[in-house]
Amino acid sequence: MAITDDVLAEIDDDTLSTIADRLGIDQAQARAVVADAVPALVGGLGNNVQSEDGAASLARALGDHADAQPLSNLDDLVGGLLGGGILKHVFGDKVPDVSDAIGSKNGTSGVDAQRILAVVAPIVMAILAKKLGGQAGGGAAQQQPDLGSILGSILGGR
Predict the structure, then answer these.
(1) What letter does residue 67 receive in the DSSP assignment?
(2) Distance CA 50, CA 148 (A)
(3) How many domains are contained in the chain?
(4) pLDDT tens for residues 114-125?
(5) A Pfam family matched by this chain, by name (predicted)?
(6) How confident is the model over 93-114, as a mean pLDDT?
(7) Structural domain containing residue 111
(8) Which of 4, 16, 65, 116 ranks highest by number of CB atoms within 10 Å?
């Protein structure tokens, strides 16, 4: 998936190593969790845009992340300060279920998977905001794009 590749490109080996070290997990496990976290996050965003309110909320959030550089403050990123709120908006009360599933698949705990999800979430939002460019931002509500279709095309026909 292109967006997964984009996220992994943003998180170079040195950054991934730092994140894994700070979380106390193996770098290969961290990379595997990231690779599963991205489609989960984008899929959750896709579910949220099925409603008009969800689409409007995502359009605003992407506008807020248009110039974001989440990797510029690794301490805040690893601490979950940037991503915790995004996870709640994307998955609601299902955050532990999603984290447990991703952790179980990759041989790590749900807690560690959730911490990585919180790291990845702002990166995904920044990349989506850049990919969507002018399509998702600005303008009146009646000009709002079909974000579900756009997210699907970014995921490769999801």
Answers:
(1) T
(2) 7
(3) 1
(4) 999 998 998 888
(5) DUF937
(6) 95
(7) 2-154
(8) 116
| pTM for the whole structure | 0.80
Q: What is the per-residue pLDDT across 9-21, written as a single tens digit (0 to 9) for each? A: 888 888 889 889 9
Buried residues in 81-118 as b, exposed as e (16+ CB within 10 A) = ebbbebbebbbeeebeebbeebbeebebebebbbbbbb
Residue type, 51: S
DSSP string, 70-139: GGG-HHHHHTTTTTHHHHHHHHGGGHHHHHHHHHHHTTS-HHHHHHHHHHHHHHHHHHHHHHHGGGTSSS
Residues contacting 15, CB < 8 A, separation 6+: 71, 74
Long-range contacts of 58-63 (CB under 8 A, 24+ apart): 58/136, 58/147, 59/136, 59/137, 59/144, 59/147, 61/86, 61/89, 61/125, 62/125, 62/128, 62/129, 62/132, 62/136, 62/137, 63/129, 63/136, 63/137, 63/138
Phi/psi at 26 (nearest 5 deg)?
-70, 145
